[in-house]
Amino acid sequence: MTATSTRIKHEVKDLSLAPLGRQRIEWAGREMPVLKQIRDRFAQEKPFAGIRLVACCHVTTETAHLAIALKAGGADALLIASNPLSTQDDVAACLVADHEIPVFAIKGEDNETYHRHVQTALDHRPNVIIDDGSDVVATLIQERQEQIADLIGTTEETTTGIVRLKAMFKDGVLTFPAMNVNDADTKHFFDNRYGTGQSTLDGIIRATNILLAGKTIVVAGYGWCGKGTALRARGLGGNIIVTEIDPIRAIEAVMDGFRVMPMAEAAPQGDIFITVTGNKHVIRAEHFEVMKDGAIVCNSGHFDIEIDLKSLGATAKEVKEVRNFTQQYQLPNGKSVVVLGEGRLINLAAAEGHPSAVMDMSFANQALACEYLVKNKGKLEPGLHSIPVEVDANIAKLKLQAMGINIDSLTPEQTEYINSWASGT
After folding, report:
1. 15-183+354-402 CATH choice from 3.30.428.10, 3.40.50.1480, 3.30.1130.10, 3.90.550.10
2. Which residues are annotated as a binding site for substrate?
3. Which positions make up the binding site for NAD(+)?
4. What is the arithmetic mean of pLDDT over 255-283?
5. Which of 153, 98, 99 is nearest to 129 (CA)?
6. Which of 59, 134, 219, 312 fits a disulfide with 105 by CB distance 3.0 to 4.6 angstroms?
7. What residues are designated binding site?
């Protein structure tokens, strides 16, 4: 598809949506002061001059600010969607029409189109890849080994993607550096907990318009995303059950005041089920069979494999759309199960994703991780690398300054004390 107003190649739904996208991007920018400061510095220093960069991300108003910052830094950037249902079409149109950034993303695109866009991204022969979920990296390794020589490195900010990268390294196929943005303190403490917690419930409410107070809500997984989801669901009056496989996280959930049990025990009790594990088939056929009539099932993990929809679809006598992003599966036992957002990320399928204020820090990490890779080209070993502590702390400092919050600093006496072993009782 080629626009009349630009020669930039792209595949978006409708360029006429650009004015609405521009308005929404500007609104998001009010809550993203840290990334703005980084963009202003990038515009002066041009750290990505001559760098071909591919970003496989959720195409949202917040991602737009990251893409604009990278281009300001001199990057030859191209953007594709990391999930078929997460694209905001007006944002995609604005990035093409107003910022001349090639975007290949359409909300609701089928799997064939999604994989074609992954190939389009690799056709760009990237030096740096930002990859939510590691689909681009996995495809590069599996199908385009000859392009690895072009690659400086990749960044990853999803739990699912980090799991895949660790598996790649274990298998000896991750032969280049990858920045673990997901585990930066200014990412997972805020984005995963507060961002996922709020946006997941926002998506459920938009899709169903149900009252959460008094409902039994089952949260599968008690990582940072699960913690945030359980916390916010309780805040809205839900009775929370947590399912876990990790004994330490399970104890933590108990001590946070939640009931903990296996999914087999939770399935007959829950009114709403939310998966945030990053694993496969957390809710399966044997769970659907014992659920209450009208139980609502949704996912806020990166991929749509956490709920076994194939077995549900094979069993169902009828499937019908009852609201936008809301499908009802009629089972042979006379009961129904309602699935939201086709089992994909409910916070992006039915809502707008994380609030801009938390994505400000997450995308600051992404931008600085890309800069770190380029500055250290050829110096980093293959495998996962953490965001430098000083970078993480500086992002937090900039965020506090933007919020008008001051904190204490150590006195010389305190500095001496914490660096000495001689002082005691």
Report:
1. 3.40.50.1480
2. 60, 132, 157, 187, 191
3. 158-160, 192, 221-228, 244, 279, 300-302, 347, 354
4. 97
5. 153
6. 59
7. 60, 132, 157-160, 187, 191-192, 221-228, 244, 279, 300-302, 347, 354
